[in-house]
Amino acid sequence: MISIKTKTMDYIWFGDKISYQKYPFKEFVLNKSGNFKIGFLKEKKYTKVIDLLQTEEVILKSFSKRTKYEINRSAREEVQFGIENSLEVLIDFHNDFAKQKGLSPLGNPIRKMADYIVITQASHEGKVLVMHSYIIDRQGKRVRMNTSASHFRGAEDKDYRNFVARSNRFLHYQSMVHFKKEGFEIYDFGGYALGTKDPGLQSINRFKDSFKGTLIEEHTYTPVPMFFIKKMMGKD
């Protein structure tokens, strides 16, 4: 379990119970409890997880044929795994990506989580190709994918685009290996849009499915007053 505090709210991640302490200024994110709680709105959340207690070989073997091939090919192409220690480097890299994709930029929200963020990257010949950030719960031995950014969109060379896409799969696997060595037991892909009709989300689901893993259900509990305040502010 981790606790992230802002000026107005406390966010409790990965817990297993709900309390009324500091109500309504505390939200419980991805909680294992499925119980109804008066005064809270409970929202189902799904994600795919990989068991890091398995050996590296077993984890890799469980992936789809294509994913295994692309990971091994990236290794042959001498793509390198690394850790980035600067949050600002991640933010700059991600925001370039977000501009290309028409996504919201990173900023203060991730800075407030800095104590719980680990950044991994895949690079080739000194050039960073892909960056992932993870929310880490050392107590619960869980890492959750938070952001993923790559710099290939807009590139005219199809082979290069495919090269970067392979590097992203490589980075997922090498991040699993890294966190396994650090003593973590759960690799969380950061959400799964179960039953979605959105083609973009369906594509993301298929990508996550290629790593197999287990689908799990958790719940986020938002205090009712805060839910309506977010609605009024347009923060669904």
Task: Describe the overall structure.
With 236 residues, this protein is an alpha+beta fold. It has 2 domains: 2-46 and 219-232, no CATH class; 48-214, Gcn5-related N-acetyltransferase (GNAT) (Aminopeptidase, 3-Layer(aba) Sandwich), CATH 3.40.630.30. Helices cover 35% and strands 31% of the residues. It is built from 7 helices and 10 strands. It has helices spanning 56-62, 65-76, 87-101, 108-112, 158-181, 199-209, 224-232; strands at 2-5, 10-13, 26-31, 40-51, 80-84, 117-124, 127-137, 142-150, 186-188, 214-223. The protein has a 10-stranded mixed beta sheet. Strand 1 and strand 2 form a beta hairpin. Helix 2 packs across helix 5 (158-181). The longest helix is centred in the C-terminal third of the chain and has 24 residues, at 158-181. It is globular. The mean pLDDT is 94.
Task: Summarize the helices and strands and which ones pair or pack.
Elements: E1 2-5, E2 10-13, E3 26-31, E4 40-51, H1 56-62, H2 65-76, E5 80-84, H3 87-101, H4 108-112, E6 117-124, E7 127-137, E8 142-150, H5 158-181, E9 186-188, H6 199-209, E10 214-223, H7 224-232
Parallel strand pairs: 2-3, 8-9
Antiparallel strand pairs: 1-2, 3-10, 4-9, 4-10, 5-6, 6-7, 7-8
Helix pairs in contact: 2-5
